Amino acid sequence: MDKMDKNTIIQYDNGYLSKTPIFQFILLSCLFPLWAAAASLNDVLITQFKSVFALSDFASALVQSAFYSGYFLISIPASIVIRKTTYKTAILTGLGFYIAGCCLFFPASHMATYTMFLVAIFAIAIGLGFLETSANTYSTMIGPEKNATLRLNISQTFQPIGAVSGILLGKYLIFQEGESMHSQLASMDAVQAATFKMEMLQHTLEPYHVMIYILLAVFALFAITKFPKCKVKSAAEKVPGMGETLSYLAKNGRFKKGIVAQFLYVGMQVAVWSFTIRLALHLNPSFNERMAADFMVYSFICFFVGKFIANFLMTKFSANKVLVAYSVIGCIVLLYASFVPNMTALWAAVSVSLLFGPCWATIYAKTLEAVEKKYTETAGAIVVMSIVGGAFVPAIQGFVSDVTGSMQFSFIVNLFCFLAIGLYFRGEAKIEAAEAAKKEKLSVAEPQV
Q1: Where are the membrane-spanning stretches (predicted)?
Q2: What region does 432 belong to: left with phi over 0, alpha with psi -120 to 50, or beta?
């Protein structure tokens, strides 16, 4: 191991530390609400752009497609940066792209084209791809190995704070008072509507003004703070190349199942949150966008509370069994949200966020557990690439809404995702039980001295 004086933290050869540096861990965890804020602002933009650019539900969901495609494309390059430099360098790179993407909203608002806004959102996603690829893995590594999953769950607990902040920025800085945009546009002639739409586009800039200042402050803090490397050290073994790593991962069945589960989970979460505001407007036409945005705040509060409940339950029970139970309940709640024709369906769509909390972190950690440590950086990047599920599932839900003419019925898409996630954790629970039985059998078979 890499020994320093007795007052410093020891880094072991496998990259883990003897104890967690608290300030660095808190600063690292602060990245999680930053990308959550960007994601929740997308939920506002979907509703805003649908009215401003007269989009179908499928076309409006392309906001998420642009966003999560950026994650998909940049995750492997981000992992290469981590391998060749440090987690800190990758984080600073991500923050730089995030700032640049926010700045692109200003020319986009003047060009007033949907495509240019998608470019700005894609640029933000590149930055967030760097941040998530580095921060998720780094959170598991920055302390003792036995607490890796717990650390990631704690870091993830900060995420709903950013999500709520993002939706509140959108509610008060993008959405306006008065009737819904759809109602106002219906009473305008072509010239008035064009002027009104340009005015609404300018409001989309306001949250990104705030974000730029926050990001610059965080960038400065990371730049001046010393972080442990948390890299695997082995004198006897070379770091595997990308070809070897990808070949190993392609043959790892548990890893591949984790990728599929993460793809579906992220897609489901993004789809539910993308269309909650639209569901509120659909079920109660008297709502305006600001009023409907409140239900997103409630969703993120549920998500936050759900994380704490899950963290407690996973100290008492197997994480796999907890997630199987969550998945079963989630399927029932989504079935209710899809078919009950009144406002209680909206509350069901909100309450399902209670069950989302532990999914990402647990799938992430379980997937990396199935991978040899020397492949961790690239494996972590590929798990982050599975976030591309957020590009596909909302688009599928939007398509179902357009085809069936029912925003409410389209929530059935997410039920099938939760069902598949439940099957994944059921499989993990069986593997866990088999490993426990094997250990017990070996302990009984040990020769008596």
Answers
A1: 21-41, 61-82, 89-108, 114-131, 152-175, 207-224, 263-283, 295-315, 322-339, 345-367, 379-400, 406-425
A2: alpha
The CA-atom distances, in angstroms, between 88 and each of 142, 218, 224, 382, 445 are: 12, 12, 11, 19, 47
CA gap 105, 443 in Å, rounded: 62
Question: Which one, of 329, 218, 342, lies nearest residue 279 by Cα?
Answer: 342
360: amino acid identity, one letter: W
Q: What is the pLDDT of residues 106-163, one digit of tens each?
A: 888 777 788 888 888 889 989 998 998 888 888 888 888 888 878 887 887 788 788 8
Residue 449: predicted pLDDT = 47
Q: Which domains does the chain have, with CATH numbers?
A: 22-231+251-436 (1.20.1250.20)
pLDDT one-digit tens code per residue, 271-306: 999 899 889 988 988 888 888 888 988 998 898 888
- Tokens for 52? 């401003």
> 140 and 365 in contact (C-beta within 8 Å)?
yes
Q: What is the pTM of this model?
A: 0.76
Q: 293, 243, 222: which is closest to 44 by C-alpha?
A: 293
Phi, psi of 17 (to 5 degrees): -110, 160
How many CA within 13 A on the CB side of residue 139?
27
